[in-house]
Amino acid sequence: MAKIKHNNFIDTVDTVFADAKEKGILHLYAEGKYLNGRTITINGDEMLHFGTTGYLGLEQDIRLKEAAITAINNYGTQFPLSKTYLSHPLYAELENKIEQMYMIPAIITKNSTLGHMAIIPTLIRDEDAVIVDHQAHWSVQNACQILKLRGIPVEMIRHSNLEMLEDKIRTLMGKSGKIWYMADGVYSMYGDYAPVQELQHLTQKYPQLHLYFDDVHGMSWKGKNGTGFIFDAIGTLEENIVVVSTLSKTFGASGATFFCTDSKLREKIKTFGGPLTFSAQLEPASVAGAIASCDIHLSDEIYGLQTELAKKTKHFGSLLSKTSLPLVSENDSPVFFLGMGTPATAFNFTKRLFAEGFYLNLGIYPAVPIKNTGIRITISAHNKMEDITELARAMDYHFDKAVEETQSSEQKIRQAFRMDSKTKLSVKKQQTELLQIEEKTTITDINKQEWNKYLGIHNILDWEGMQYLERSFSNSQDPSNKWDFFYYIIRDQSMQVVLMTFCTIGIWKDDMLSTESVSRHMEEIRKTNPMYMTSKVLSTGSLFTEGLHCYISPGHPLAEQSVRMLLNELEEKYNSLGADMLVLRDFEHGFRWDELIRNQGYFRIDMPESCVIEHKHLLEFENYGSLLTTRSRQHFNREILQYEKFYDVEIKDCLNEEESNRAYQLYCNVKERNLAINNFSYNREVFENMNSCANWEFIILRIKKLDTVNFIGVMFCYKNSSNVYVPDLIGMDYTAGDGYNLYRQLLYQTIKRARELKIGRIDFGISATFEKKKLGASVIPKTAYVQARENYAMELMQTLQNETNIPR
């Protein structure tokens, strides 16, 4: 399996959002001539609003509105000048009142995103290091990318994983100045909190550790003067903590604030923070609205607002606790996340709630893992108690219906979120009266003729090929080369095969789906930690094979039902084995069941193309070049035929010990150089077993004039019993073959051998697509479907990819 394309992340997000938009859930427009906070009109339907992040409802407060209107009348719609030069008349009052709230001066920025971009590059010194929680807000993570241009290490940890954080600290402390950990105070999706006390204990244990908190979702509804969750948790701002808060969302106005105890640092950020220096300042209306909000925060009124919101939040939490609804994080924040598992269930549930007159937010990839799709509900001061009660009733009623209609279950959802089940559900396999599924763990328990009829016609997937794979990988003592095999056959009532596939579970490198530059970075770390960033993966097919790994009977009336049954079976296996990732590969573009699979919690990625030579005249012409295009024929004559005379070619059914050692050495040469296909190297047993399998043979190339017994190239080829020739692995001596076009010659000799054997199809595999096309191979685009328990590994690989693409 080779690299996915760089645009896969963008394409995946686009596909997920496009699906939600098509369902009428995202990219909507509010309607009407005014908003009141409690209701919102969409597509002509008035709905109760449970999607706001203005938790105290201050954006509708008449005092903020009148202050903003007066400011526009007095000062205009904007003050078009950088604050570095001159601040408009209201700024000094706002800064003074913010300082009264926090008892410390603040830097005010246009918004939190620009604030992070201004603060982080100035705050972090070249000798420092950064560790980011992988669920920290995008704006924090994006600002940290700038640091990599300066060579500052930026590491990532799994969400609130303090053990992992401590490991990173220990790694960095001997070679860094300050070590900054960046996190949210209240996380925007699940509404869970940063473990502030535990983090403060770590700062005492490791004096180099400093904390950077984005607390925009913790603002106003918590803390003295509404200063937020973090200030409420820490009490006093210490030198090793900085906090970014907000004047928007719950505060009711616009802008963001930054707090630190170091006055020199504060002035430096004001002077050198890019967006602060070069961007326009807050509009007069925003500043005036913020001043009016400060007056509320500085009065006892703020505590009344907090208390009322807390009552509503508690009421909603209490109602949910009486249901079996899968609430992901239980706390007293006004953010609730209800797990749906798959996008299909989330879409169904959301549309049902919309129809009942409730607006709430969809939580979807990449904000959460695609299998952790859910619904974010936010409680605000605008919501009435009876509104909240009705919402809880509607959610409880429609959840079971949405789950049933999308063929999911509460148990599946709780497994996806690693939650305990509240109800004891039957764990029997989901079957129907019309279909039955068989599971086997070895090919020897499957009828040879039946297997070869449906799957054995591809690659090395015939019955003997599967025996070889089991013998080579099932009992390996090397964990990186050990796989367990699972075979699935789904039959209808007449015992006709509707679907057939096989799966393996083993250890994959997480960067297998990343770029070559990322893999080089990872391999440096693996020199001392071989299993670094690896995952337990359940996959259709195996890493040794490519092509069609799943047969689905075309036109069978139960084909769709069989696909659903397989997905259910694989998910059950995935959970019981505790795998980190589930991968379905390799399907051709336009796969019929694409939408069905994606709606079950998979995202689609483009795989490297597969190369196949299957020419109807492949065996007819003595001169193979005559089958090629004019341009390819010129390349063939010049770059291949002209070099054939330098080689002695030998075909062997079995290698002696010396030849086996040489062949393995040449394989390792290629594997070490070719990080574009970065799986684990195969051990010696894989190659030794080729000698005892009659279907394998070896094409060996020597240079005539070198007069040596050592061959410089070898192609490891499998003869599928169904007339398919598979050059599966290759080995080369790059030094000895330099100047002799060794790789191209190996490709050509493979074609010649297939023609000699009168085999009409060559599965040329993946990679080196350009070279294979010039030899007449057809290129077949392939896709895969991936489901992961969390986004951490994928986000880390994306981050490393950005880093390794930075010019040095």
Automatic annotation (TrEMBL):
Name of the protein: Aminotransferase class I/II-fold pyridoxal phosphate-dependent enzyme
Keyword Transferase among UniProt keywords: yes
Pfam families, A to Z: Acetyltransf_6 (PF13480), Aminotran_1_2 (PF00155)
Domain of life, per lineage: Bacteria
Known cofactor(s): pyridoxal 5'-phosphate
GO molecular function: transaminase activity
Domain BioF2-like acetyltransferase per the UniProt entry, residue ranges: 631-772
